Amino acid sequence: MKNIILLCISLFVCSYTVISQKLDVDEIANQINAYKNDSRGPYKDIRWFCTDGSIRMPKDPCPDNIGPGNQHARYKDEVVALGLTNHIFFGQILTSTSKDEFWDANHNNSRLKQYQIDKYLRAVDNGWINKKSQFYRGAIQYEDEEDWGINFYKWLLSNDDLLQANYFLIRQSLKDIPHNGDDNIAQNMRSQSKILSDLYPPFMDLRVKIHAQPTLTDIEKVEAFKAKHISKLSANQVKIIEDLIATMTLFFKPVNLAALQQKATLLQNTPFGEEFNAYVIENNDSATASDLIQNTSELLVKLRAAIFNEKRPLARLQMLDISLKLEEIIFKKAPLWQPNNIKELSDKICYLGMATAATGYVEQHEWEALNLTLPATKTDEIALGELTTLLQQARSLVEWSAGMVKANYQKEVDIYTSFEPLAYGFIDDKIRGSIALHLGKSVGELGDLIANESALTNKVLSIPNQSTIRGLNPGYAFGELVVVTGSPDAKDVSSNKIYVFQRPPADLKPVAGIATVSEGNMVSHVQLLARNLGIPNAALSFENLNDLKQYNGEQVFYAVSNKGNVIVKLAQDMTTEERALFEKKERKDEKIAVPIEQIVLDESKVLNLRSVNASNSGKICGPKAANLGQLKSIFPEQVVEGLVIPFGIFKDHMDQEMPNQNQSYWQFLTAMFSEASAMESRGMSEADIETYQLQQLAMLRSAIKQMPLKATFVSQMEHDFKTILGSELGEIPVFLRSDTNMEDLKEFTGAGLNLTLFNVVDKAKIFEGIKDVWASPYTERSFKWRQKYLLNPENVFPSILVIPSVDVDYSGVLITKGLTSRNSKDLTVAFSRGAGGAVDGQSAETYLIKDNGETQLIAPSREQYYNSLPITGGTLKKSTSFNEPILNAQNIKVIKQLAAQIRETMPKETDTEYNGAYDVELGFKNNTLWLFQIRPFVENKKALSSSYLESITPKIDTNKAISLFKTL
C-alpha cells in the first residue's frame, strides 16, 4: 500500500512538472499545426455547464430546476496547460470565461488582446487553429457569446477609471467581441483580399489597392479581374473572390443613419442624443463627402466627451457602437473628398485628424497639444514656414496614432509571431482599418507639395510616400541595406551595413546607418551614440519599411542632411563626389586618444561622492562620479549620497595573477592588444583580428567575474556603506554605475556602452556586481564602439559609482539645447514612467521647451511597461496608460529653473571654458526633483559641418508666400 501511495505521489509530481513547464515556440507551433488538422481543433468535447456547477453530457441538458445552463466545448488538456504555463490562450470561449479573467488586468489585458489576434488569424488563415473544426457543431453557441459580450461591457463600462484609461482598447475590442453588433466587415474585406493574393499572386496589385485606399469602384475592378482570370482560377479561388465581392458590396453600402438612430434607444432625451438626432436630420441624405466628414468628425468629438458624463454602462455601449459607425462613414467617404487647393487640403487634414483623435488613436491631452488649423491671415497667402509647421504637426499625429496601436498590441503580437508568423500582420491591419490611413495619405500630399516649394525633397530609391521620411541625425554611409521586419533585439548587426528597423534595439552595436519606424526617443543612449558618431539616422513610416523590403541586400548610399532631407540610392547611381567620400583613409585620422597622462592609479580607497568633483574626471574616476559630486555641491538636496570606487582599485585587482595564465589580468589584456598589432603588421584581415580579440576578451571577462576581491577593499566597502549611506551593506538597494575614462571626451560620449546594475540589495550580489561592471568594457558591443572611435582602446579604466536607488515615479533626460530647433537657448526633455526608460530608448514623452517660454510636445510616451524599484531589490515591470501626461506644469517649471542654474553655475564650478550643452539624467518622486548625472552633450561636428552634407541641404526661404488657393 505504501508503494502505491508513493507511486501516486510520484505520478502527481511528474504530471505537475509537465504542466508547469513552459513550452518553447517550436512546441507551440507543433500544437497549432495539430489543431489545424484536427476536426475538433483546440477542443476536447462538448458538454452542458449547469447553473449549479454540474457538467452534463451533450444529450443531457441541464434540468429546469437548476437553471438552463450553457452548452459549449471543453478545451483540450494541453490548451488549458498552455494558459497556465505560458499565459497563452487558444480558441477562447467567452461563455466559459469570467469577466475578470478575460479583462486580465494583471497581464495588461493580454487575454482580450489574444482573443482579437485569434480573430484576425482566423480571418486570414481560413479558420487558423479551427481550420477543420470551424463547423464543430455546438462548440461555440453564438447567442451565448453575444449575451456574454453584453454582460461583459455592462460590467466593464460601469467603471469610469477603466474607460478613461483604456478608451482606445475598449473601443477596438467592440470590433471583435460579440455583443449584438455588426461584424468587422472592413477587416473581412482585407483578409479575403490577402487570402486571394496569397493563393493567386496576379491579384496582388488589387490587394494593395484595397488595403491602402479602398473605394467603391474597386468592386468593378475585382469583378473585371474575375472575368479576365476565370479560366485560371480554381473553384475555391472563385468562391473566395465572390465572397470578397459580397463583402465589399456590404462594406460600401451607405450607413443608414436613421436605422442607427433607432438603435440608440437609451440615448433619447440626453444631451448627446439630441446632438445625434440633429446630426441625423442634417446628414441622412447628404451627398457631399467634405460636409459629411466635417459634421461626423465634430460629432465624434462630442461623443468622446459625452461618454464620460453618461454613467449608464449600456448607454455607453450604444455610444461606442455609434462611434464605430461614424468612423466607418468617414473611412468610406475620405477617398471621395478630393481637395482642389491647399486650403481644402488643410481642412481635410484638420477634420481627419480630429476624427482620429476622437476615435481614441491619440489621447485628449495629446490632441490638444497639436494645432492642425492654418493661422489666421488677412490675405489668401501663407508663409512656407507656417505651412511646414502644419505639416510637422499633422505628421506627428499620424505617427502617434500608429504608435497607439503598436503600444497596445505589440507585446502580444511579438509573442504570437514567434510561433505563428501570420500574426505579424495584425498591427498593420489595425492601422489600415483606421481613419489614420486616409489622414496619412493627405499628410503625404501636403508633404509632397511643401517639398516642391522648399526643394527639401527626399530621394529614397523609388519608393512612394517619401514625405513621411525625416532625418534625425546628419551623416552619410555606404553599405548593404538590411530591412528587419521582426524584432531587432536578436539581430546580429555589422558595422558596415545600413539597417532599417521597426524600432531601434536597446543595445545597438556599431552600424553604418540606421532608420526606424519608431525612433524611440531623441535622447536615448542609442540616439546619442548615433548623433555623436555621425551615423545617419532617420524616421520613416511602416509603409516605407515595407516598400524598402524589395531593396534588402542591395549596396546603397545613404545620407541625411543637416536639415533632415534623406537620400538613399543604389551603388551604381552614386556620383563621383559620393564615391570619393568612401575612399580608403588612414583609420587613425578619424580617431581620438583616451587621455591617460594624468590618470591616478594608486588611489586604493573607496571615496565619498562628496569628496570628488569635475576636476577629478578621468584622473581618479570617470565623469559620472566626478560630475555628480560636482552636482552634489551645487544641489545638495537633489543629489543622493554615494560611494566612488576609483580606477586605482580596479587596476590593483587587475594586477593579481590570472588563473592558468602565468600573468596578471592586466598583462593578459595588454598582450592581446600587442598580438592584434602584430597580426595587423603581418597583413591579416580586420575580421580575423577582431575575432581573435573578441575570443580573448571573452576569456578575460569570464576571469574578471571570478576574480577574488581583496579583503581590505571588502572591509572598506562595508564600513563606508554604513557611514556614508547610513545602512549596513545589504540593507538598502543601490545602483552600480560603470564610469570609465573613455566617457564624455570632447569627441566621444560613450553613452550607455558599459554596465549599470539596477537596484541591487544582497551583499553578495553587490560584490558580484562590482566585478560584472569591471568586466563590462570588454563586452563585444562596448569593444566594437571603442575600436571604431578610439586610438588606444586598451587604456580604458572603469571606476564605479554606487548610489542608493530612488524609486522615481518618472525619469528622463534634459538636454540644454533644442535638438529639433537647433537653438542653443531651447531645452529638450524626454521622460518615461519609472526608472531608466527614456535613457534606455523607450518611446518617451518628449518636449521642446523654447526660449520664449512655449512648451511644444514633440512626442507622447508610447510605452505601457515601466520599471519600478522595490526596496527588496531588482525591478518590477508595471503597466500604465496614456490618458494623463507624465510631466505636469510644475515639473516643467522646475526643469526650466534647473537648466538655468546649470548653465550659470557649471562652467564656474568646474572652472572650464566649456560653453556647450549639457546632458542631464533626472527623475521625480512625489514631484520632488532628483539628479542622477550630468555630462557634456556631444555631437558629431564633422557630420554637421561636412561640405557634402551642406551641399545636399537646401536653403529654404521660410517666408516664401504661397497661395492658399494654389491648385493641387
From TrEMBL:
Reactions performed catalytically: pyruvate + ATP + H2O = phosphoenolpyruvate + AMP + phosphate + 2 H(+)
Cofactor(s) essential for the protein: Mg(2+)
Key words of the record: ATP-binding, Kinase, Magnesium, Metal-binding, Nucleotide-binding, Pyruvate, Transferase
Source taxon at top rank: Bacteria
Domain Pyruvate phosphate dikinase AMP/ATP-binding, residue spans: 621-943
Single Gene Ontology MF annotation: pyruvate, water dikinase activity
Pathway(s) annotated for this protein in UniProt: Carbohydrate biosynthesis; gluconeogenesis
Any Pfam family the entry gives: PPDK_N
E.C. no: 2.7.9.2
UniProt entry tagged with the keyword DNA damage: no
Top-tier EC class: transferase
Similarity field: Belongs to the PEP-utilizing enzyme family.
Role of this protein: Catalyzes the phosphorylation of pyruvate to phosphoenolpyruvate.
Protein name: Phosphoenolpyruvate synthase
Organism, scientific name: Formosa sediminum
Organism taxonomic ancestry: Bacteria, Pseudomonadati, Bacteroidota, Flavobacteriia, Flavobacteriales
